[in-house]
UniProtKB/TrEMBL annotation:
Pfam families: NUDIX. PANTHER family: NUDIX HYDROLASE DOMAIN-CONTAINING PROTEIN (PTHR11839:SF18), UDP/ADP-SUGAR PYROPHOSPHATASE (PTHR11839). Keywords: Hydrolase. This is NUDIX hydrolase. Its EC number is 3.6.-.-. Residues 44-178 form the Nudix hydrolase domain. Its cofactor is Mg(2+). CDD domains: NUDIX_ADPRase_Nudt5_UGPPase_Nudt14. InterPro entries: NUDIX_hydrolase-like_dom_sf (IPR015797), NUDIX_hydrolase_dom (IPR000086).
Length: 189
């Protein structure tokens, strides 16, 4: 276990800046472990889920969508925010997002890992699942009203090329593709 006390920044004061539908933002004044004070801008997020989905044809299922903070369109694995007010677990969220965004259901979802995406300022924890035994659904759950998505299915080499061209540029998708490549290499040996 890492030594905690020598690194801890104790909160002296917290000022709530913003409370939205997805995030909350606060400004903390902290006492530094070596003496003195500083300020930390913090973003609180309920967490999210990403799904690595590989078709029976050995292609990764991705969605193309516009991301406003980037002001561009990118390719990503199916993903979404955990709706804590609905009492959904990360696995239930993953199953819902997979079906809503891609029209696929999985026989099982295997938890791969959970990771903090930007721990320097945000507490968002992303849970990554591997969807196994995919099947297309005739009448899938409806997409969110405010989403415009297009589904893509790419081979491993095509997905890696999209990383090089920056069409795939988010951490969860790059991690999922590298995990898929590791599985592929393991199966070949």
């Amino acid at each position: 276990m890492l030594e905690y006390e020598a690194f801890e920044e104790k909160t002296i004061n917290r000022q709530e800046i913003f409370k939205g539908k997805i995030i909350e933002v606060a400004l903390d004044e902290v006492a530094l472990p070596m003496g003195g004070t500083s300020y930390r801008e913090l973003v609180f997020h309920p967490g999210g889920v990403g799904v690595l989905a590989i078709t029976p044809e050995n292609k990764i299922v991705l969605v193309k969508q516009f991301r406003k903070p980037l002001e561009r369109v990118i390719l990503e694995i199916p993903a979404g925010k955990i709706e804590t007010h609905e009492g959904r677990s990360p696995m239930e969220t993953g199953a819902r997002e997979l079906e809503e965004e891609t029209g696929y259901q999985a026989e099982t979802l295997e938890h791969l890992t959970s990771m903090y995406l930007s721990p320097g300022f945000a507490n968002e924890l992303l849970h990554l699942y591997h969807a196994k035994n995919l099947k297309k659904v005739e009448n899938p759950l409806a997409q969110d009203d405010d989403e415009v998505l297009e589904v893509y299915e790419l081979t491993l080499s095509e997905a890696k090329e999209k990383i090089q061209t920056q069409e795939i540029c988010d951490a969860k998708t790059i991690y999922a593709i590298l995990y898929w490549e590791t599985l592929f290499l393991r199966e070949r040996n």
